[in-house]
């Protein structure tokens, strides 16, 4: 342990890779687990929450940690792969301590915790030693002054607060992908999860909800006001919104559809008309659609949109007006790989793949899978009997339905051994 820094700030550990002694990465740090003591003694750090491959969260005891530095954590490699469960006496530093309101005993300064330092005591145990806090801003000052204070000089970290705040927890989650942020939210205590959900903006909350198990989705929506729930649904992709609405009580679903913007609600209503395990029920009604006179340059500009998933960006649909689903007749599709090889001034209509037999809305999961596999595609157009484009089924839509029921729960919980 001689190369380990004498003091490490917990929030800076989040996301660091965890390696075994052979140099193979076994996961990433997601939180620090401590046991608070009844007196003023420094809390003992008992371990790290580590997310291993497969998105399972396990507990890595500090006795298995041999080195911590600014870029990595090294363990003995002997880790129990059972899913981590927080015990009654334990507290998560990032999940539960950040944003706690505290007071400095010696000065009376009040502020909000934005980080906590841990270090090794003489006994070789790791303990929480310092608290980094930010004073509440006053007047026109943008940010309050920051302080790093001895743990023993802080009052307020042993008691729970009704409204803790989420500023620094949100900052800790800001760089995570939606699926990883969903894992964190799933593991939070109910009251802390509610605080975080209330603080997230609608777009970020929609991204995270799409990655949560159905039970968590329904629970979160039950706690939201109907007005906000409708706003979040508008930010979700229509197919995910339709799946969620289908899981809600009928009267709640009807009311939310009434509160949504008419255009957004209409897309969801159309998807609800199709069977859940059909191309119509899985499709996204907002693919990339262009008119026959569009150029390759215009097509490439459209697929560069960061709002598109990689699978949606892989296919450009050329249709007769109107250009919103259901469109006029679908003339053909252009693959992004072909577009990249053509002059920017070339018309998209001149580089179309017109030899495909498109899917119909009632196509089964097997039909969709066969189509994608046959033509080596990641997206497949869905048309009606008149050849009008209704939407596109992507490979990720298909996988959502082909994977066993509750796969999101298993992705997060991964009960059992590796």
From TrEMBL:
Keywords: CBS domain
SMART domains documented for this protein: CBS, MgtE_N
GO molecular function: magnesium ion transmembrane transporter activity
Limits of the CBS domain: 283-350, 352-410
Keyword Cell inner membrane: no
Matches recorded under Gene3D superfamilies: CBS-domain, MgtE N-terminal domain-like
Keyword set includes Oxidoreductase: no
Record GO cellular component, one term: membrane
Pfam families: CBS, MgtE_N, PRC, SH3_actinomycetes
InterPro entries named among the record's database cross-references: CBS_dom, CBS_dom_sf, Mg_transptr_MgtE_intracell_dom, MgtE_N_sf, MgtE_transporter, PRC-brl_dom, PRC_barrel-like_sf, SH3_actinomycetes
Domain of life of the native organism: Bacteria
Protein name: Magnesium transporter
Organism: Nocardioides marmoriginsengisoli
Lineage of producing organism: Bacteria, Bacillati, Actinomycetota, Actinomycetes, Propionibacteriales
């Amino acid at each position: 342990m001689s190369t380990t820094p004498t003091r490490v700030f917990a929030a800076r550990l989040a996301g660091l890779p965890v390696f075994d002694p052979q140099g193979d990465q076994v996961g990433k740090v997601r939180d620090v687990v401590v046991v608070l003591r009844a007196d003023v003694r420094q809390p003992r750090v008992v371990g790290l929450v580590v997310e291993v491959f497969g998105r399972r969260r396990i507990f890595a005891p500090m006795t298995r940690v041999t080195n911590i530095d600014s870029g990595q954590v090294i363990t003995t490699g002997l880790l129990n792969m059972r899913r981590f469960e927080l015990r009654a006496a334990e507290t998560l530093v990032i999940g539960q301590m950040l944003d706690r309101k505290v007071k400095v005993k010696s000065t009376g300064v009040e502020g909000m915790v934005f980080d906590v330092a841990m270090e090794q005591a003489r006994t070789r145990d790791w303990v929480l030693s310092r608290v980094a806090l930010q004073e509440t801003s006053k007047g026109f000052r943008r940010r309050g002054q920051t302080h790093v204070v001895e743990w023993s000089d802080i009052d307020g970290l042993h008691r729970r607060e009704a409204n803790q705040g989420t500023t620094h927890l949100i900052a800790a989650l800001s760089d995570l992908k939606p699926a990883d942020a969903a894992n964190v939210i799933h593991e939070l205590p109910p009251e802390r999860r509610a605080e975080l959900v209330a603080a997230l903006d609608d777009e970020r909350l929609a991204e995270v909800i799409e990655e949560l198990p159905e039970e968590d989705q329904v629970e979160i929506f039950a706690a939201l006001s109907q007005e906000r729930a409708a706003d979040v649904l508008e930010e979700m992709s229509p197919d995910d919104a339709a799946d969620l609405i289908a899981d809600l009580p009928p009267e709640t679903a009807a009311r939310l559809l009434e509160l949504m913007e008419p255009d957004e609600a209409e897309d969801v209503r159309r998807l609800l008309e199709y069977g859940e395990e059909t191309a119509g029920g899985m499709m996204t009604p907002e693919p990339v659609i262009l008119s026959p006179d569009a150029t390759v340059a215009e097509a490439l500009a459209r697929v560069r949109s960061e709002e598109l998933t990689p699978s949606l960006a892989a296919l450009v649909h050329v249709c007769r007006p109107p250009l919103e689903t259901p469109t006029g007749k679908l003339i053909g599709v252009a693959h992004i790989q072909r577009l990249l090889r053509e002059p920017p001034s070339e018309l998209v209509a001149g580089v179309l793949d017109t030899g495909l037999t498109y899917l119909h809305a009632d196509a089964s999961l097997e039909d969709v899978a066969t189509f994608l596999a046959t033509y080596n595609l990641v997206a497949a157009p869905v048309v009606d009997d008149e050849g009008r484009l209704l939407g596109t089924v992507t490979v990720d839509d298909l996988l959502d339905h082909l994977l066993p029921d509750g796969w999101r729960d298993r992705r997060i919980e991964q009960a059992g051994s590796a």
